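Budget justification aside, the reviewers requested a transparent look at the raw inputs and outputs of the sequence design task funded under Objective 1. We therefore reproduce one unedited record. The lines immediately below are the structure tokens for a 111-residue chain.
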């Protein structure tokens, strides 16, 4: 049993060393600009999807999986969700780059 623990520790240490090296496929894939953009876009999509879906159900209440328009409905909901989230992310990046937040902080907090 003791030999198995040593082998397991050795195996896990090799796996951790490989996982944190910069030469793995995962590191190259996850450092891609498109993947980083999608990663940044995931939070706005998560925050917006519930109200977009509920609003979409109000606009098209008779949609179900049997209806042929259901897939068109899903594509429209996904496109709207991605679009609104990309616009929000662009506005947030614009605010960060212009330094608007620091200007507001300086006006609110006087040292």
């Amino acid at each position: 049993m003791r030999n198995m623990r040593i082998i397991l520790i050795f195996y896990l240490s090799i796996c951790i060393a490989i996982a944190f090296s910069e030469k793995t496929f995962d590191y190259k894939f996850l450092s891609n600009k498109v993947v980083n953009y999608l990663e940044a876009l995931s939070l706005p999509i998560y925050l917006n999807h519930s109200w977009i879906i509920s609003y979409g159900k109000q606009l098209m209440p008779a949609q179900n999986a049997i209806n042929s328009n259901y897939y068109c409905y899903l594509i429209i909901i996904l496109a709207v969700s991605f679009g609104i989230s990309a616009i929000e992310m662009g506005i947030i990046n614009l605010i960060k780059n212009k330094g608007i937040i620091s200007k507001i902080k300086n006006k609110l907090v006087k040292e």
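The chain is about 80% helix and 0% strand. The helical segments are 2-19, 25-30, 33-59, 69-98, 100-108. Computational costs for records of this kind are itemized in the attached budget.
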